[in-house]
Write a structure and sequence with these properties.
The protein is built from eight helices and 15 strands. A hairpin with a 2-residue loop joins strand 1 and strand 2. The protein binds N-(5'-phosphopyridoxyl)-D-alanine. Its EC number is 2.6.1.42. Belongs to the class-IV pyridoxal-phosphate-dependent aminotransferase family.
Length: 286
């Protein structure tokens, strides 16, 4: 099916949406993005994603004056035009088209390039992977040091996923100075003696919108939380492990670098948090 996508103020078939070869996103990876999940035809965590988008734009000084309400209208229109029930909306803003390759930012007033499109993922909330749990490998974290900004510079994340695939595993965890930073496209957690352990927020990791909600829900459910870095050895000796992201919610992890975590089956904390997160997200979706 040909999607209807959004490009710089217009809705059009995906086959007609084209961007300049000089676009800063294409030439320099000079762009930020968000992925907002859609469940039951509605947006989950919309305001969280828009707040992080505004922060990414501000940190990189990319001008964009689209308001929260305008973003909402665009997201909703794409859902409607594409009949999206379950999946997500990808949003990308680049610094625009400079008319040539140049390291310097374009002159003030250069409009950003704004692209949004839907990604249909039927069965997202009932993914059988969540019943089995996934397996991860670890790789050194070779990314830049502003991981709190959600840029499209995803080559290393992509390489990490391919390295995992080559080993017959599902995903990769990044390790820096002996500690896990995050997953290739998610935030990660271990559980030991009932306590949820996850790295604290800093420029070392993306400030996950799902992370923020899941920790709040865990707290409300009287679960103990400790925000600190952990090692691969600690994860391998943990009772359970899981990750969070907008596109997979809470996903149990059952193996780290070839070692089974806990019983080697999804743990009860991850399962419970997944249930709570999906049901709360459905309730608050807009
Ligand atoms: N990835 N860390 C990284 C490096 C990520 O790329 C993501 C999200 C997260 C989780 O953030 P959130 O809970 O806000 O989705 C953490 C998205 C889903 C992606 O790139 O497709």
């Amino acid at each position: 099916m040909t999607r209807t996508v959004y490009l710089n103020g217009d809705y059009m078939p995906e086959t007609e949406a084209t961007v300049s070869i000089f676009d800063r996103g294409f030439v320099m990876g000079d762009a930020v993005y968000e992925v907002t999940c859609v469940l039951d035809g509605r947006l989950t965590e919309f305001d969280g994603h828009m707040a992080r988008l505004a922060r990414s734009l501000k940190e990189l000084e990319i001008p964009c004056d689209i308001s929260r309400d305008e973003w909402l209208e665009i997201h909703r229109k794409l859902i409607e035009l594409n009949g999206l029930q379950e999946g997500g909306i990808y949003l990308q803003i680049s610094r625009g088209d400079v008319g040539d390759r140049d390291f310097h930012y374009p002159p003030a007033g250069t409009p950003p390039t704004v692209v949004l499109y839907t990604q249909s993922r039927p069965g997202l909330s009932t993914d059988p992977k969540a019943d089995e749990g996934i397996k991860v490998i670890s790789v050194p974290d070779l990314r830049w040091h502003r991981r709190d900004i959600k840029t499209v510079q995803l080559l290393y994340a992509s390489m990490a996923k391919m390295a995992a695939e080559k080993e017959g595993k599902d995903d990769a965890w990044f390790v820096e100075d002996g500690f896990v930073t995050e997953g290739s496209s998610n935030n990660c957690y271990i559980v030991k003696n009932g306590k949820i352990i996850t790295r604290q927020l800093s420029n070392d990791i993306l400030h996950g919108i799902t992370r923020s909600s899941v920790l709040k829900m865990a707290q409300e459910a009287q679960m103990e939380i400790e925000e600190r870095p952990f090692t691969i050895a600690e994860a391998q000796a943990a009772d359970e492990a899981f990750f969070t992201s907008a596109s997979a919610f809470v996903m149990p992890i059952v193996e780290v670098d070839g070692v089974a975590v806990g019983s080697g089956k999804p743990g009860s904390v991850a399962k419970r948090l997944r249930e709570i997160y999906i049901s709360e997200s459905l309730k608050s979706a807009i």
